[in-house]
Specification:
By secondary structure, this protein is an alpha+beta fold. It has one domain. Helix content is about 30%, strand content about 45%. The chain has four helices and eight strands. Strands 1-2-3-4-5-6 form a six-stranded antiparallel beta sheet. The longest helix is centred in the last third of the chain and has 20 residues. It is globular and about 45 Å long.
């Protein structure tokens, strides 16, 4: 199961309410932010997921990925990556622009997102979010 799928089950507003943001503190790792950013380039609901660091007082994305979601019966069933950015590396990829889809770029983003998802789960970000919620 993808990290975003697990998180959206715990916080269903991420799927439906624009500007809903979840920030997860999980020391010693960088803060993770997941935000509903409205509609993606193909008109599907979209999420941004990002680790934020800081350099010279500026927030740095390390990395940020954006996904469009297919939602069935209130649950996200598919996450389609379309954007990747890492400020520290000075690298940005937008796989869907002006109705043009770069399927090779999307494949690379999907492979990275699957590895990142496994890493976030293994690092305990789901449990950290559950602990944050229970302390409110």
């Amino acid at each position: 199961m993808h990290f975003l799928e697990k998180l959206s089950e715990l916080q269903p507003e991420l799927l439906t309410r624009v500007e809903t943001t979840v920030k997860i503190q999980n020391s010693p790792y960088m803060t993770l932010a997941v935000e509903n950013i409205g509609l993606g380039p193909r008109g599907l609901p979209a999420l941004s997921i990002c680790h934020y660091g800081e350099q010279n007082g500026d927030l740095m994305r390390d990395p940020e990925m954006c996904f469009e979601m297919e939602i069935v019966d209130g649950l996200a069933t598919e996450f389609h990556p379309y954007y990747f950015r890492n400020d520290y590396a000075g690298f940005e990829q937008n796989a869907v622009e002006d109705k043009r889809i770069d399927s090779l770029m999307i494949r690379g983003q999907r492979e990275f997102s699957e590895m990142w998802s496994r890493t976030l789960i293994a690092q305990g970000f789901i449990e950290a979010y559950q602990a944050q919620r229970s302390s409110l």
